[in-house]
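Researcher: Going back to the complex we discussed earlier. I've cleaned up the inputs and rechecked each line, so this should be the final set. Can you rerun the prediction on the complete assembly and write out the structure?
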Amino acid sequence: MKQAYVGVAILFLVGLLTSGMFLLLSHLASAYRPTKVKAMPYESGINPLGDTRERYSVKFYIVAMLFIVFDIETIFFIPWAVIFRDLGLFGLIEMFIFIFVLGVGLAYAWKKGALEWD
Amino acid sequence: MILDFSSQIDYLWALLPEVVLAVTGLLVLTLDVFQRGARSVQSRTWVRWTAVAGVLIALVANAYLLRFDVPVRSAMIAMDSFRVATNFVILGATALGLLFSFDYLKREGLNIGEFYFLMLTASIGMMLLAGSRDLIVVFLAVELMSLAVYILTGFDRKDPRSAEGSLKYFLMGAFASGFLLYGIALLFGATGSTNLALVTSEVARGARDGNFLLHAGVALVVVGFGFKVSAVPFHMWTPDAYEGAPTPVTGFMAAGVKAAGFAALIRIVTVELAPAASVWMVVLWWLAVLTMIVPNLIALAEDNVKRMLAYSSIAHAGYLMVGVVSGGAVGRSATLLYLAVYAVMTLGAFAVVGVVAGQGDSRGSLADFRGLGWRRPLLGAAMVVFLLSLAGFPPTGGFIGKLYLLLAAVEAGQVTLAVILVLTSFVSYYYYLRVIWKMYFEEAPEGAALPEVPGAAFRIAAVVAVVLILVAGLLPGRAIRTAELAGADLAPRRVVPLSQPGAPTGVSGTSTD
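Model: Rerun complete. Updated structure for the full complex:
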């Protein structure tokens, strides 16, 4: 059983060696002439306005949580759709229960005013 | 009716109490948001009692579970009297916790819909955890329970202590979940299945080349549950989380989470993983010793009653651990009996603290209990019953529970544990009786605020709790018989490994080399 993992170890080592070698080679072979413009996050984009660690509104978190409702829905829908025929009527009903529970969550968020920005 | 789990619908019947609670939870949540017009007090009361009614229906549904015949024992959820008994403990704790929280939520101005929804959700998680026979379900149940309880801990979001407790609990709990999940993964790697029945038979065959995996997996699972039941040395989060949480939540956590954690510990570690006893026996033995000694000593120096009760709840985890280590049907039923009594008395004690502490939980120190016994006689009397029961004095259920634990320990040959249990109980008398002393033998200072008279729901719950404790102490026959029946109906059964749909071909293939 242990031999089965030798391949994994070899793969790991090879990966480490290759990536390390590329880093080393580019470090040795390249010319390094930094300028201020080159050091900016987007060399050919808009100039940055300030630090990224800024406080932002808690509303974004609510949007993110609402996103999860639909995201999870999709994640469960796709595998369900693949084996839909095998599951039969029970699978269909179960999926409707699932959607219903999600719907309750959405209705709750809606009523609580999570969908309004102000 | 026969449930053989050949159809998925059978699971709907097997999970009847959980389904009832889930429906109630959704109902409570929507009722609370969709009330017409301004949020009148009347409609809120209605929402409250809906939640309580849901729990009562779930209790009835739970009793109904015993009527099913279950020929197959390899389902994902257990259908034995042990599960029914632990469900009763958890549902009872939920009902009491709900009733005790009515006044508190009103006083602190907290949202009720979300609160009750989260309590019901946590309760579902606890019941699933106590009854699951599949490691994946175990993990899902732990998460369902824990996530709801993390939020409940921080529910009083304007109180910094609540937020602090919640964050600590969440961070430590996330670590614990990680340990548990890693342990489950290793067990799966060692045995090739997540179904506990199959895991057991594989462990019994002495999983040939996966011994290290097996041992590491068992150890990590024990660590994970150790966190959940707050066994020393995994107890660091407990005092802060218990102190910061809204007081009814603290009682609910101390009762429910611990009941579920111990039920799972008994079912998974001592029954299903019994063949690996050489691994977990020593660990659990030391956990029991440490968990009995350390918190009892710290509690002696604690002046905040809520914190003192938090340490007391850790100490009780140690006593319960004695029952787990003793094992066998007697040890299991002793643990179960003590869990039931402990749940009631700790809920009651925390509830009284919640009333005495008053607006904003500001008066929780020992000095605030001075003269309570004379100024609020009924509240004081109830507190005396709860504290005496926690200490383990004769006319209460706490005494019977401890006696039974001692019997189980001696019968299993764990005399050292029994001696430590008795000695630490003596130590604990000091901090329990100190509260009673303050309540009756010291005068309240001039102008000290008098605790409000609690509402009807609180009074009902307090009377029920006191009666339960006294009945368990004076007429324990029925309770003991129920616990013995449940403890015996858990023995591992031989299971024919059917075609396992989830069996990973890769793992079983490599293990036959």
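Model: Worth noting: Chain A has a mean pLDDT of 86.
Researcher: Good, that matches what I expected from the previous run.
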